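Phage holin family protein, pasting as requested.
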Amino acid sequence: MRRFLVRLVINAIALWLTTLIVAGVRVVAYEPGDTTASVLTFLMVALVFGIVNSVIGNFVRIVAFPLYILTLGLIALIVNGLLLLLVEWISSLIGFGLEVDGFWWGVLGALVLALISWIIGIIVRPIVGRDELRR
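Structure tokens follow.
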């Protein structure tokens, strides 16, 4: 459970930093001026992103394994961009909001999100413990 919460917070922070870096990716809170609502919105979007990435993302990676080999992994950029657009669609159905301006913004946002999440994971690993994040 602790690992799940740490990954959730890491993804929420990475998503927040991604929205600051990539102009075409935004998260809109229920009440835009309320800090608590903004933090909860980022946590909810990170939760949806984690569920989509672990369930649908893993299925797509298994099915598209030959394409990953054929393109030397570059198809992962497209898949991650599509997964980010899927998270946008799901969050808009629920009523809170990740907004992506288009497909290529989604690809760029997914790339930046992955890099930032990776960097934060490297920083947090010595603090939390290596075994805690790998399970």
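Note for the archive: Residues 2-134 form one domain.
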